[in-house]
C-alpha cells in the first residue's frame, strides 16, 4: 500500500471516504506555490479525527494524505465542472475557494502534469474505493458509501451567508435510496444542529459516480460547516488564525451527532 493512501478494513456495510483531509504536498510542487499555507487552507480540517470512531463501528475507511491542491480526488477526472455556472475548483486547483491564485506566475500544472497526477494519485485512490466496495458487496446486499467533508462556514465566492451545520448531498436523490436520506436527516435534526439536503453541495464526483442504488451501493456526502466542531475566525482566514487546533472537548457534541449519523447508515444497510 502507498504510504499516502490509508485503508482501514472493516466488515460492516459502511465505507467512509476522506478525500480532502490530506495536507501533504510533494516538494517539487510546493516550491512553485504562492504560499504553502494558502495551498492547505481549504483542507477538510480534522475530519479524520472527528470520525476516528468509525472503525469501532466496523466501518472501512479510505483516506488520502495528499493535499487537494495537488489533485482533488472528488472531482470529475475529465475536468468537467460538477456545478456548471457556479464558482468551484477543478481537478488540479489553481485557485483557493476564495479565488486566490495558488501558483506563482507560469507555474500552474499543464495538461501533461495533470495527467501524471491523475495516474499517481487519483487512480490509486479510486482503485481502493472500488476494491473495498467490491469486497463489502460480496458480504452484504447493501453498502453505504459515506463521503466525509467539511468547509468553512463563510465562503462568499461559493455561497451566500452562513452554511448550515449539516449539508447532505445525494445528487438530488439519485445516489441513494430515499430511506437512507431520511434516516440521515433524522439523525442530523435530532442533534439540534442546522441541516439542509441537496443545497449548495449535492455531492461530488465520488457520490455521483459510485452511487448506484439498484446495484446495492448507496452513496451520500456530508459537508460539515467547520464551526460545528472547531473555532472559526471572525474574518477572512490568515496564517495566524487558520486552522485552529483540534480540541476534543470542542468537538465532542458534533462527534456524538456523527455517531448517530453513521449508525443510521448502518441500520439502513442492515434493514
Report on the structure:
- With 271 residues, the protein is of the alpha/beta class.
- The protein contains 7 helices and 7 strands; from the N terminus they run E-E-H-H-H-E-H-E-E-H-E-H-E-H.
- It has a 7-stranded mixed β-sheet, with helices on both faces.
- Helix 5 (178-191) links the parallel strand 5 (166-169) and strand 6 (195-197).
- Helix 5 (178-191) runs antiparallel to helix 7.
- It starts with a strand and ends with a helix.
How are the secondary structure elements laid out?
Layout: E1 5-8, E2 14-18, H1 27-30, H2 36-40, H3 47-50, E3 60-64, H4 111-137, E4 143-151, E5 166-169, H5 178-191, E6 195-197, H6 205-210, E7 217-225, H7 248-270
Parallel strand pairs: 2-3, 2-4, 4-7, 5-6
Antiparallel strand pairs: 1-3, 5-7
Amino acid at each position: 500500500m502507498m504510504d499516502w493512501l490509508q485503508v482501514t478494513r472493516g466488515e460492516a456495510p459502511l465505507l467512509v471516504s476522506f478525500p480532502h483531509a490530506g495536507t501533504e504536498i510533494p516538494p517539487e510542487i510546493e516550491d512553485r506555490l504562492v504560499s504553502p499555507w494558502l495551498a492547505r487552507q481549504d483542507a477538510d480540517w480534522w475530519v479524520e479525527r472527528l470520525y476516528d470512531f468509525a472503525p469501532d463501528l466496523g466501518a472501512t475507511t479510505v483516506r488520502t494524505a495528499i493535499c487537494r491542491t495537488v489533485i482533488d480526488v472528488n472531482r470529475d477526472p475529465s475536468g468537467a465542472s460538477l456545478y456548471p455556472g457556479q464558482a468551484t475548483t477543478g481537478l488540479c486547483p489553481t485557485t483557493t475557494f476564495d479565488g486566490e491564485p495558488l501558483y506563482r506566475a507560469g507555474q500552474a500544472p499543464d495538461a501533461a502534469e495533470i495527467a501524471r497526477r491523475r495516474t499517481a494519485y487519483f487512480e490509486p485512490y479510486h482503485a481502493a474505493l472500488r476494491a473495498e466496495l467490491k469486497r463489502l458487496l460480496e458480504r452484504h446486499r447493501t453498502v453505504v458509501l459515506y463521503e466525509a467533508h467539511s468547509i468553512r462556514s463563510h465562503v462568499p465566492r461559493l455561497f451566500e451567508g452562513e452554511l448550515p451545520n449539516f449539508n447532505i448531498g445525494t445528487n438530488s436523490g439519485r445516489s441513494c435510496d430515499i430511506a437512507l436520506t431520511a434516516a440521515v436527516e433524522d439523525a442530523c435534526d435530532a442533534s439540534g444542529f442546522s441541516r439542509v439536503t441537496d443545497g449548495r453541495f449535492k455531492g461530488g464526483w465520488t457520490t455521483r459516480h459510485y452511487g448506484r442504488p439498484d446495484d446495492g451501493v448507496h452513496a451520500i456526502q456530508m459537508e460539515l460547516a467547520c464551526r460545528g466542531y472547531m473555532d472559526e475566525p471572525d474574518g477572512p482566514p490568515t496564517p495566524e488564525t487558520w486552522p485552529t487546533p483540534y480540541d476534543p472537548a470542542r468537538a465532542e457534541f458534533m462527534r456524538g451527532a456523527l455517531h448517530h449519523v453513521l449508525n443510521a447508515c448502518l441500520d439502513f444497510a442492515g434493514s
